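Reading a protein record of the kind used here takes only a little practice. Think of the row as the fold of the chain written in a discrete alphabet. A record is reproduced here so that you can trace the correspondence yourselves:
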Amino acid sequence: MKNPVVVVGIGEMGSVFARGFLRLGFPVYPVVRDTDMAEMATQVEPELVVVAVAENDIQTVLEEIPRPWRNKLVLLQNELLPGDWTRHNLEPTVISVWFEKKKGMDSKVILPSPVYGRHAQLVADALNAIDIAARVLASDEDLLFELVLKNVYILTANVSGLQTGGTVGELWSRHQDIAAAVAGEIIQLQEKLTGRAFDSTRLVEAMVHAFEGDPEHGCRGRSAAARLERALKLADQHGLDLPQLKHIASIQ
């Protein structure tokens, strides 16, 4: 019998990973809101602990992860950067998710999802087992680029969409000036948050490639306004002026 996989948060995304590990023959133990993880950790020795909670809950959950589970974590949240886990002295396996899963629909793959860390191959195998493309990265530098790229993609689409509406295909074909200006400011913010410089041309080209992977993907999701507010708050904390983002916030 294989060691189980613990999935913290059995929502739409958590259910996808659970199904992948079940397909590989791993028992899956869920952690829901009323689960005592500390008590569970005295009884369960997992192979992996997949943290599939929402972005707003990730820091609280990481603070509460039982010590025996700390070297077995897999993180998959949007807007994730290394500082989110290094502040807890963690070295998790991290995946940048490029598939969409909504209630009542199958998973929709935009691009193969890159994953890096000690358990990367197992995570990739679980997704590939349910026909969701994933690829293992070679280095933490590759992971950083992929996380920043996902942030640029999500924030550019969401923030621009607050002004333009429509799909990501329409955003780039009809409102490229707005999208390019927003992307430029998001890249500046990512550089401040990571303390690293990035090739903005490469990031924008990769973002457009992702747009082309699902051109009908809507720009303005439910979290768009909150993401804009969070980005501006982080910019203020780091002394960064983002006029395009401020303009879009002012017209909401």
Remarks:
- The chain has a mean pLDDT of 97.
- The beta strands are 5-8, 28-31, 48-51, 73-75, 93-95, 99-100, 108-109, 113-116, 134-136.
- DSSP finds eleven helices and nine strands in the chain.
- The chain has two domains: 5-137, 141-250.
